[in-house]
Design a protein that fits this description.
GTP Cyclohydrolase I, domain 2, 2 helices, oxidoreductase, NADP, alpha+beta, 129 residues
Length: 129
């Protein structure tokens, strides 16, 4: 596998497709460029998903996230693009992407985008006394 940025998202077979379980991934070093000023934007991305048949491979995810470094992108667009690309690669039961962008001009931005497979119903949460 290359160590250069790439839009290719490698996957592997879900080892427990019969079970709903959640995978949480934090990407604390995301960067892209402001499309208006060309200045760098920094963010932490939080990815949560319930896999179906495929899981995203982490090194491929790192190189994918790196591919935005020199691209101009509004926070709302980049968050939704990442969700769309991950959903296309993994076809999860559920996925939530949260982009927590660092302060810019005194304003913090957090963008949350979700996907839910049409045939999936989340399990009822267990409540322990």
């Amino acid at each position: 596998m290359s160590t250069q940025p790439t839009k290719e998202l490698e996957t592997f077979a879900n080892p427990m497709p019969q079970r709903d379980y959640t995978i949480r991934i934090d990407v604390p070093e995301f960067t892209c460029l402001c499309p208006k000023t060309g200045q760098p934007d920094f963010a932490t991305f939080k990815i949560e998903y319930v896999p179906e048949q495929k899981c995203v491979e982490l090194k491929a995810l790192k190189l994918y996230m790196w591919s935005f470094r020199d691209a101009g992108a509004f926070h709302e667009k980049v968050t939704n693009d990442i969700l769309a690309d991950l959903v296309a690669a993994t076809a999860p039961r559920f996925m939530r992407i949260t982009g927590v962008f660092n302060v810019r001009g005194g304003i913090y931005t957090t963008v949350i985008a979700e996907h839910r497979a049409p045939n999936w119903t989340p399990p009822t949460p267990v409540s322990l006394p």
